[in-house]
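Retro notes, structure queue

What went well: the backlog is down to a handful. What didn't: a couple of records were mislabeled last round, so from now on we paste the full input next to the output in the thread. Example, using Chromosomal replication initiator DnaA from Roseovarius aquimarinus:
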Amino acid sequence: MARRPVAPPRQLSLDLVSMPAQGRDDFYVSSANATAVALIEGWQDWPARKLALNGPPGSGKTHLVHVWRDLCGARILPARELPGADIPALAAGHVAIEGADTIAGDRAAEEAFFHLHNLALAEGNSLLITARAAPNHWPLVLPDLASRMQATPTCTLKEPDDELLAAVLMKQMGDRQILPTPGTIPYLVRRMPRAFGDAGRVVEAIDRLALERRRPVTRALAAEALDKLGL
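Corresponding output:
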C-alpha cells in the first residue's frame, strides 16, 4: 500500500520577548527627534530642572529616558506605580516618570506625583516626564498639579520622516535578530504609513511570518506581512 506523502512540519512562531537596545549609540537622530536628543544631552540646562517629553507610542520616549538615566543616574518609574512608591526616596535623586498622562483622573496617583514633583525640585534634582500628549491636554483633576505641569517646558517627538522610519525598522529588526535582504527596508518605507506604532506591528508580523515559513526576510515576505495587516 502506497504511503501518503507527509507534509513538512510547519514552524511554529514563539512569542519570545525581544530585548531592545536602549543606549545612546542605538538612538538614530533625524529632524523628527533632534531637538529632543539635544535637550536630553543638555539636561543640566533645563529651565526649572524639568522637561516633559511627549509623542506617539514607539517614538523613542522610553529610549531617551534610558539615555538620560545613563547620563545622570536617574530612577525610572511608570506613573501608575506612584501611589505605592516611596516618594521621599524617589525625590532624593533625579527621576523619570513615564506615561504621566495615564494617571489623569486618578486622584491618589496625581497627589503622589504632585508631592514628588515638589520634593524632587526642592531637593535640587531634575525631573523628566513622558506622555503621549503635551501637559495642557491631560485631564488632570488636581488643579495644583495641572498648573505645575502646564508650566513645564515641553518637547514633542514627531512622527518619522523616511530616513527615521527606515532607521526604526532596522533597529526593531536588529532587536529581534532579523537580517532583511537588500531592498526590503526601502520597500517597506515606500509602502507603509509614517507611524511609529505601525513600524512595530510590521516588524512583528514579518518576524512571525519568517519563523512560520522558515523563509528569509525578503521584499516578498514584507509585502505579505503588509497585506495581512491591511497596510
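Agreed that this is the format going forward. Reviewer comment attached to the example: The two ends are 49 Å apart (CA to CA).
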